[in-house]
Design a protein that fits this description.
It is found in: Membrane. By secondary structure, the protein is of the alpha+beta class. The protein contains five helices and six strands; from the N terminus they run αβαββαβββαα. The protein has two domains: 65 residues, Alpha-Beta Plaits (2-Layer Sandwich), CATH 3.30.70.100; 44 residues, no CATH class. Helix content is 29%, strand content 19%. A hairpin with a 4-residue loop joins strand 2 and strand 3.
Length: 153
């Protein structure tokens, strides 16, 4: 924006509208308990009716609803909850992201294949799931990917 544009906006008294902050394109993932195709259809219709939604993907096998659009995550969750279904923000992250996926509080039997609970959601499990610097140092010392590693193995 040029200097003249900025000055002209400052002295423009023709309209007294406030500038709305544009929403960013977001991907919102929600865990929803869905039992049948009717539940799936009900949730899809509720979310598709929202302003700013560009794409809705419902995966009943993983109990997951993915919404892409110019929306706020809390509003999407509120809309899904209005359908009467039990819903929460997607609590899982891919298995590869966590250093210790089998730590207590991180591993979840109910999680979809390849996912574990996000350790950043619970401060008690964060320390257990994170690898310490000495742990990383010792594990990379014997790694096949490290060219300077020990060749005794």
């Amino acid at each position: 924006m040029g200097a003249l544009d900025h000055i002209s906006e400052l002295f423009d008294f023709s309209s007294h509208k406030k500038h709305k902050k544009r929403k960013q394109l977001q991907t919102v993932e929600i865990k929803v308990k869905m039992d049948c195709e009717g539940c799936e259809r009900k949730v899809r219709k509720a979310v598709e009716g929202m302003k700013g939604v560009t794409e809705v993907d419902v995966d009943p096998k993983q109990h997951k609803v993915t919404v892409i659009g110019y929306v706020e995550p809390k509003k999407v969750l509120k809309r899904v909850l209005r359908t009467g279904k039990k819903a929460e923000m997607w609590p899982y992250v891919p298995y590869d992201v966590v250093d210790h996926p089998y730590a207590p509080g991180v591993y979840d039997k109910k999680a979809p294949t390849g996912y574990v609970r996000n350790p950043m959601d619970d401060p008690r499990t964060t320390a257990l799931a994170r690898a310490s610097s000495t742990e990383v140092r010792y594990s990379t010392a014997f790694s096949d990917e490290n060219p300077n590693s020990c060749t005794v193995m």
